Structures
1.
Amino acid sequence: MTAAHDTVRTPYELADVPGWFPHLDQVLFDWFLTHQETHAVRGDLLEVGVYMGKSAIFLGRHLQEGEAYTVCDLFEGEAPDGANRAETTKSYAELTREAFESNYLSFHDELPRVLQGPSSIVPAEVAPRSCRFVHVDGSHLYQHVRDDIGAAREVLRPGGIVALDDFRSEHTPGVSIAAWEAVLNRGLNPVCLSGQKLYGTWDDPKDLQEDLLEMVRGREDCSLSVQDAAGHRIIRLKGRGMAAPAFPPSRHVRPSAPEPRPQAPKARPQVPAAARRGGRARRIAVDLLPPVVTRTLRRARSRRRTS
């Protein structure tokens, strides 16, 4: 095993896998994917940028019979340019393919198809109009995100959803520019926004938004606001003490806490031999005195003990 992988804890629950996947986004992933499945929207799954596999593991649970699942990441490979190389060195130095695959196989029988390389290889590897859900969570640099959004548009089929991570974080302005540029100039329709992700489609989002609003209004753990901007209905969601959806534990058995060791009985304090001899001598001396004097001494000793 690599040194990087040694730093990864054995995952017993999805929450044990390192990464950033808020409970609200887990709820939304689950809702969008289940909504597709109940409305007969079929297609493959794609994730660009997997880190240690948290969201990839979650997506893999929704893989249906006959569907394919592809993930793409540089892992420890060479970045395509200097800016991307600096980004991966700073933020993802500990990421290895081995760590990702080990985490994924803790929860699933088989790995997805793994593309190791820059996301620019996706268009040549994933068929056009083959996917129903694409999660873009790779580079935060504008040009790369712009190209990833373009690739998502090409591979999504009717009814497909793209989730763009980090579209509003202060340290990822390139993602924000690429995301809103896609909304204003490239036909992307926002379905909803969470604190971390923009969910969109190149279809008419009206019916999907109505179903989403119905779901959210039935929950007490999610706040909701609706705004209009540049001709788009923007649904903003925020979790309020929201729990993550139930997810099966991994194959690993969490070690139980060790049984407490029985406490050895406390040793009685040792009385120095001289003190023992002195006390015994005093008791013998008292016993040899006349009875009247002995009773007087014992009463005086008793009064000292209780005072």
2.
Amino acid sequence: MLKILFLVYHGFSAHSGISKKIHYQVKGLREGGHDVRLCYYDFSPEGHRCRYIDGRVLQDFGSGWLAGLRQRFSYDAVYDYCRREGIELVYARCFQNANPWLTRFFRRLREAGIHAVTEIPTYPYDDEFRNFEWKQRLGLKVDQFFRRSLYQQMDAVVTFSDAEEIFGQKTIRISNGVDFDSIPLHQFSPHTSSDLHLIGVAEVHAWHGFDRVMKGLGQYYERNGQCKVYFHVVGGVHPNTMTHVFRPIIEHYHLQDRVIFHGTLFDAELDAVFNQCQFAIGSLGRHRSGITVIKTLKNREYATRGIPFIYSEQDADFDSQPYVLKAPADESPIDIQQIIDFVQRFTMPPEEIRKSVEHLAWTIQMQQVIDQVAWKQ
């Protein structure tokens, strides 16, 4: 059993897939027999900026702009906690926040004999900032300047890509995992036997490529497609994306009754929409942010649920699976007729799809990290 500090540089939201993933990772480590403490940054009920460990305040930075600066620079309390509690491994999650103070913190950990790894959820990530606000782009510039020196203090970088080295540091390559307890099995309840319902679940960004599905729908109907095809988008859509990307496509092709925006859904409401649908939409635009290989969480959630799906990146866990359609990694509209033909031929039951990803349980994936850290005797 190891004593592990899981370090997160932000707070949590009940509506966030990232938040859920982190809690599932912690759960997976604990189910593997490890003593895991979750350290994160958030606001107290009084509005103070605080660093917490498992719900208890470790450090109260106060309020105001000065407190905001302090939380970025002050890690002494975390270091002292690690020494006091005998923490053996710090597992951090990248927040594109490399700076001299964070580098000093990890250097002190290394000098104290405490191992450390950082998970970089998406690599490379620089192109994802292309359309972000100037403050976020400025933060990326700072990160770019200091990240190589930061990762020199680590044992390794955890990645879901196939990169053997990231920012000068060796990698531990794992897959995004799944928590089987939290994802129910797909139970399709059709409206009619002839309709096709597609579902895409995401906090929608350009790299999800949902516009390719909408353009594909438009072209399908321009060619006098006879099947009624509906695209259910579940998750937040930025107003700029809706106004400048989705709405012009929908209006041009008259898809107002074919593309349905549900907003963010959870639990029974989310399950109900899934169970209306026969086929799911993964990422179709990762090439837009310069990514070729990635093991996305969404692909694994779809497979755990037991619904077939499409995506365009390279993902070794799914590229050859019979319940997957691969789209080209380009700007071409998605071939809706190909999806229709696939669904009409598809007979694999949800239980069998789910069984194919049992090895992707978070308990197994997180233990791979533990096994590959260079433990010194």
3.
Amino acid sequence: MTEPTPADYTGPRRILSGIQASGALHLGNYLGALKRFVALQDTAPTFVFVADMHAITVWQDPAVLTAQTREIAAAYLASGLDPKRSVIFPQSAVRAHAELAWIFNCVARLGWLDRMTQFKEKSGKHKERSSVGLYTYPVLQAADILVYKATEVPTGEDQKQHLELTRDIAAKFNNDFGVPGFFPQPEPLIQGPAPRVMSLRDGAAKMSKSDPSDQSRINLMDDADAIAAKVKKAKTDPEPLPETLEGLEARPEAKNLVAIYAALADLSREQVLAQFAGQGFGAFKPKLAELAVESLAPVTAEMRRLMAAPDEIDRVLRDGAERAAQIADPIVAETKRIVGFWR
């Protein structure tokens, strides 16, 4: 198989990403995703969805799923995404995602999916009890991206393997059906001082909605007192902050807190160390807590306002779904024609 080069695709630049509708959003989502979405929305057409179809790869309470879909949409809006500039919608409201996913299920190969490390991590020792949806999750993810012919995907390091699968599926489809350049080879956008925010309790583990300890993360709906308390209790070491990044390499918790400060303040980690070098965490943590509260308070307040006005959120989601379908439906229709489906 000869893989097309990105130059083979001549369509418009488009950006796409989304957050799964499961669990409360936290600081890692804000720094690693939401702030980046906002910064990108003026650079190219941007599609930001709520991944409710991905959420049900494990069982979800239906009422909770609906509420979490609205909460994520509220977080998008509160963080600065403008529904006039970005297309904001629930994944399940655009049926083209599911249609293209089935076609891609027939393009992807079992060996490719067997290599996906996230399935191994999430299924653990009892993979036979996992849903088929959890196994084919990366194929649906490929459909999410390629149904808009997105060329760039803001993503974390943990999703790079899935994006590589998307590129493989695009290349195989283009090659198998003799349509070079039909689907693009999307590129990851991994940038910023804190693209991967770690747990406040374990600097080697990613900050996660699924962590049983609420002390491991700062939730976007936490109030100022809760944020300050969590930062104060964050795991650290007894050493003062070093002068250089090299001095953080064997200190994962210190490295994480410096990265969080840098991302919130829009500074480099080097600039943060220049400001706090030689100081202990007794001095650094209060400054970090103050900065976190100052940065998140407007987002939290607007999220709460929106959550109290669900009709406002629903209007944004309905409009976004209609606009997304206007792009996705013709792409799926052309894909079906290429495959040979009866019309």
4.
Amino acid sequence: MAAGSSNRMGCNKLSLPFEGSFLGSKALITALQSKLDTIFVITTPEDPMDWIAPSLFFNPVFKGKWTRIVSEKSFEGQAESLKSGLKEAENYLSEAAIVLLADQPFITTEMINNLILKYKECSLVETKLHYITSSNNGMFMPPLLLTSHIFSDIIKLNGDHGARYLIRDKDRYNGLSIDYTETNFFYDIDTPNDYDEITKNK
């Protein structure tokens, strides 16, 4: 998910320098190094894609593993970006999709792979699972795995309602969580202060 407006940052935060590349590239590289089959990069129509490291366009190992998806209505809220990705996942006949945020540079490949492994374990039993989420201190956080059983309900969402809006309904949706004690994993970069915090010791 890379279709945010960066209003609080005052510039395109994904293009900010970070660890020898760009902030937005960090999460994408992490996804590419995971066990995900295909990665959809959800952007606004006007995104110049200058935050993606050149090697991700030309390296044959990565080049065919990710695809840009333009969310034409991303300005209406995060639900539109999420819906754009899930509609594409439906076109691929995906059993499940993992939601990642481009402004979370500290998510690890292990966290992504843990969701995939847990999903595969659950698929061996006859349980209709809607989601598997990461969590910190009991709070649901991306990365989040959504199964195809919930795609259609999420695609009906509007505005700034994300998947978390639905999965709070525990009577309707069946899910699991993987808890992490390390809060820094989930740090997202929204403001200049956030960015200063993660780069001041670099």
